[in-house]
Amino acid sequence: MSPNPTAAVQAANPLLGDAVLAALELPDFSALRPEHIEPAVRELMARVRAAHERVCAGDPARPASWEDLVQALEPDSEALGRAWGMVSHLHAVADTPELRRAFNAMLPEVTQLWTELGSDPRLFARYRALREGSGFAALPALRRRIVEHALRDLRLSGAELRGEAHARFEAIEQRGAELEQAFSEHLLDATDGFSLRAEASQLEGLPDDLLQTAHEAAGEQGGWRFTLHQPSYVPLMQHARDRALRQAMYRAYVTRASELGDPRLDNSGIMAELLALRAELARLLGFADYAELSLQTKMADSAAQVEEFLLDLARRARPYAERDLRELRAFAATELGLPDLQSWDLAFASERLREQRYAYSEEQLRQYFTEPQVLAGLFDLVHRLFGVRIVEQPASGAWHPEVRLWRVERDGGELLGHVYTDLHARPGKRGGAWMDGLRSRWLRADGALQTPVAVLTCNFASGVGARPPLLSHDDVQTLFHEFGHGLHHLLTRVDELGASGLSGVEWDAVELPSQFLENYCWEWEVLRGLGRHVDTGEALPRELFDRMLAARNFQAGMQTLRQVEFSLFDLRVHRDLREFTPQAVAGIAEQVRREVAVVFPPEFARFQHSFSHIFAGGYAAGYYSYKWAEVLSADAYAQFEEHGVLDPDTGARFRDEILARGSSRDAIDSFRAFRGREPSIDALLRHQGMAG
């Protein structure tokens, strides 16, 4: 099709249309077809190039202003980013062969465009002219900050490179995007491509709703069909008494997208090439390694500081982890007849130990957490803490019938934004849980206020029969976690596009609001409102809550070391690797494991082949952010513990000093403004039962 669609095509294409209306209306996914993608994206790319050329044309030393530089670029760049975000989101949650082909056909061109423009020395010169111009000091502080960040980002995008170095930088960016996409697709296809059919003799111990779902999945062939999707895999590993069934499922799960499976889906070479390219990219920009480059936009000062933080955490957690493992092995040997505890036994044995020690099971708890009641309780909490209401409205234009749409507003009715929830696992949907911003808050130059739109994606089990979906307590925490990200995006009061919501927030501070909100999953005042038995409507018994609370730090030492292991692997594979081969990557994983782990998986385990956070998800040399931000979130929550966990005044301060600020100031300054001091690790250690 023509790169300049006709008016009729443009009107029918949900990726195009009137810019002001797009700032006010919700996106229409239901009308988006694979054939829309190429013409619309090409048209939007052409507009971005034209705006870029207008800004960069002429004498680079001529005076520059905010209006003829930043405001001149924003409308078309935002429109392309918003449209490509819709396509990317649809590809992640409703993948089809046609959509994948259309997405992959345009991915290289979109990547190339952003790489070219982000590394254009002419644009760098224009920003520098603005920074050095006489009018810069008169700009509001926020706009000055955005300009400084733009100059930093242009440097990190290669704008100061010339000749062959510049061309090589662009080629690396292009190839890196292709490899990350391939990594993600391989993992999705490997997950979707495996299922195991079980017989009645193998089902002892499995929950009834899992059995019903598995039986329905088996179809006309009969029996029970289990998959590697979380709602199937996790409860099977926790409850299946058939050890051979657990072993078969475990092996399939930990070898996904590796050389031990379908060779067409092997991520081995992708990882090695990605790491080599990232190291080369860092050297081109004058950094010793990719970890040093990655930390330029984070709170942490250096890789050495991050490593010291992780090793200190490992040292503090190790005695607790060793105790956890000793107790689990002794229990498995004496109570379960498993003297040789293996990796495929860990979840099963741990769940049995939890049941014996605390007299409850996760399955028992699930009966009290119906999805509708949990959502209602979450929204009530948000209202009590932050003074905002969340009201459902028709989800017209959504991408799947199960998707729901919520309006977020102040008590007086002022619209703050919208959030979609897409909570259930299904084929063609990427695993895991995440929050995406489909649109950011922005007061446009034409006076139209664009309100933010978020999408919250999880992979919980669907309801069985007439029963509503049931959530495990881990699921409840996941939902609260992702909604914390959503609040960070939706409750911003920053009107400048370059600093609103999560835009520009240091990556190792992004997890602060999400992990903060998880704390409320352990508060009686909250859980008693969202826990109702699915069959009887009985409120969550206080006795059951007390047993659950007593088990809060069950195996916290082992869990902490596992997160440290992942984080340290990520850091070192981006800093210390010199030979870029799958064997060398595996060598780093083994070295880290020997240094910090207490649990050692079998030789065939390939966790790195499915580590999409760092190979496809933006956390490269930044996975430590979860633990780093956990220190901040635990310490911030301690302020609520001191004043009342549901204290609205403290909630308003958290909203105003952290959630509303975007990147208008450094994250550490926002934390200090809320807490009144520097962060301390003490609250985290106390929350995890590792103080003293």
3D structure, described in words:
The protein is an alpha+beta fold and 692 residues long. Among the domains are: 7-160, Neurolysin, domain 3 (Orthogonal Bundle), CATH 1.10.1370; 195-255, no CATH class; 371-555 and 626-687, Orthogonal Bundle (Neurolysin, domain 3), CATH 1.10.1370.40. It is 56% helix and 7% strand. It contains 28 helices and 9 strands. It has helices spanning 7-12, 19-24, 34-56, 66-93, 97-118, 121-132, 141-156, 163-192, 208-218, 230-239, 243-254, 268-284, 290-294, 303-335, 346-358, 362-366, 371-386, 473-490, 511-518, 524-530, 542-550, 556-573, 582-596, 612-615, 625-643, 648-659, 667-675, 682-687, and strands spanning 195-198, 224-227, 388-393, 404-410, 415-424, 434-439, 442-443, 449-450, 453-460. The strands form 3 sheets. It has a 5-stranded mixed beta sheet, with helices on both faces. Strands 1-2 form a two-stranded antiparallel ribbon. Helix 4 (66-93) runs antiparallel to helix 5, helix 22 (556-573) runs antiparallel to helix 23 and helix 26 runs antiparallel to helix 27 (667-675). The longest helix has 33 residues, at 303-335. The termini are far apart. The model is unreliable at 1-9 (pLDDT under 50).
